[in-house]
Design brief:
278 residues; alpha+beta; D-amino Acid Aminotransferase, Chain A, domain 2; 2 domains; binds pyridoxal-5'-phosphate
Length: 278
């Protein structure tokens, strides 16, 4: 049975869901998105994702998306497609308008709304073994706080990691490890959990915020402060957080073993506590 998706007000078979060649997300990456994880049929952190979507829209001067519609449609897609463990992908673009111009369309234009829910199975073995990461220079713009579909530097960074036999690339900006290509970066330095502060240079992850809350509740010392590259060698643990990876331990960075080369106790404690929340 074909997957049913939602495009511009209609539930459609996947094959029939097509967008215009003039869509500004296609031509100019003029769009925003969210990915929501669904556990046993229930979306996790939907409110946070929708709030961030609305913020991204405001920052890009897109019309405010109808959050009630998106939530309703998301649940309906889970039901229609009979999904249990899944992800919901939500994308809003400024819409299709001709002729192509950089400046916003001068005539009326309806934003394109796409929602796709599909089955998701995590690579569970990675939580046991941890992943390898590399560092790459951050070549992105200064509004990484907006979850825009303009992801070319992120895609190039992830490919560099893949080419190096690693699973994630950590961006280095002004001498600090700031975040992953599709995740937030954490480390344990001098006995404290460190992660880059929420600002325009990173995406403030929904999972990052949950992890920080959980860490504080568990009594860990937490510092929202960058980790200098010069201190990376002294970090006893590293991990990344994201909607699909939850808390993913890093056991090697640029070929150097992190800690004892296995997922560390803090990352494991956070993962366990977060799983209990889920
Ligand atoms: C660049 C970047 N940072 C952080 C994250 C983690 O965000 P979240 O926890 O909301 O999935 C993502 C997720 O896609 C991302 O692309």
């Amino acid at each position: 049975m074909s997957l049913t998706v939602y495009l511009n007000g209609q539930f459609l078979p996947y094959e029939q869901a097509t967008v215009s060649v003039e869509d500004r997300a296609f031509l100019l990456a003029d769009g925003i998105y969210e990915v929501v994880r669904v556990y046993a049929g229930r979306p996790f952190g939907m409110e946070g994702h929708l709030t961030r979507l609305a913020r991204s829209a405001r920052e890009l001067r897109l019309p405010a998306p109808d959050l009630d519609e998106i939530e309703r449609v998301s649940l309906e897609l889970l039901r229609i497609n009979n999904l249990s463990d899944a992800t919901i992908y939500i994308q809003v673009s400024r819409g299709a308008y001709a002729p192509r111009t950089h400046a916003f369309p001068t005539g009326p234009v309806t934003p394109t709304l796409l929602v796709i829910a599909r089955s998701f199975k995590a690579n569970a073995a990675q939580w046991e073994t941890g992943i390898k990461a590399i560092t790459v220079p951050d070549q992105r713009w200064a509004r990484c706080d907006i979850k825009s579909v303009s992801l070319l530097p992120n895609a190039l960074a992830k490919q560099a990691a893949t080419d190096a036999g690693a699973q994630e690339a950590i961006f280095i900006k002004d001498g600090y490890a700031i975040e992953g290509s599709s995740s937030n970066f954490f480390a344990v330095l001098d006995g404290e959990i460190r992660t880059y502060p929420s600002c325009n240079y990173i995406l403030t992850g929904i999972t990052r915020n949950v992890a920080l809350d959980v860490a504080r509740k568990l009594g860990y010392k937490v510092r929202e402060e960058g980790i200098p590259t010069t201190a990376l060698g002294r970090c006893t643990e590293m991990w990344v957080t994201s909607t699909t990876q939850e808390v993913m331990p890093i056991v090697s960075l640029d070929g150097q073993v992190v800690g004892d080369g296995r997922p560390g106790p803090v990352a494991q404690a956070l993962l366990k506590a977060m799983r209990e929340l889920l």
